Amino acid sequence: MGATAAVMRGTPAHELERAATPLLSIEDLWVAIPRYKLESQQVLRRIDLEMAPGEVLGLVGESGSGKTMLARSIMRLIPASGWIERGRIRFGGQDLAALNEEELRKLRGRDIAMIISNPRGELDPLQTVGQQIGNILRYHMRMDRTAIRARVLDLLRQVSIPDPERRLNAYPHELSGGMAQRVVMAIALACSPKFIISDDATSGLDVTVQAQVLELMRKLVVERGTSLLFITRDIGITAHFCDRVAVIYAGEIVELAARDEFFENPQHPYTLLLLAAFSHNERLRRYWLGEDETRKEMGPSPTGCPFANRCVRVQPRCRSEHPSLRELASRHFVRCHFPVER
Amino acid sequence: MPILSVSDLVQQFPIAGSKAVVRAVNGVSFELEQGETLALVGESGSGKTTIGRCVLGLIRPTAGAIVYRGHEMGGRRSVRSAELRGKLQLVFQEPAESLNPRLRLFELIDEPLRALQVNRAERERRVRAAARRGGLAESLLELYPAEISMGLQQRVGIARAMISEPEIVVLDEPTSALDPTARAEIIDLLIQIQRDLGTAYVFISHDLSAVRHISHRVAVLYLGMIVEQGPSATLFAQPSHPYSVGLLSSVLLPNPKLKRETQIRLEGEIPSPIDLPKACYLAGRCPLVQARCRERMPAVESVEPGHMVRCYRHREVARQEQAVDYFARFQEEAERILGAGMPPREKRPAIQ
Question: pTM of the entire structure?
Answer without folding.
Answer: 0.85
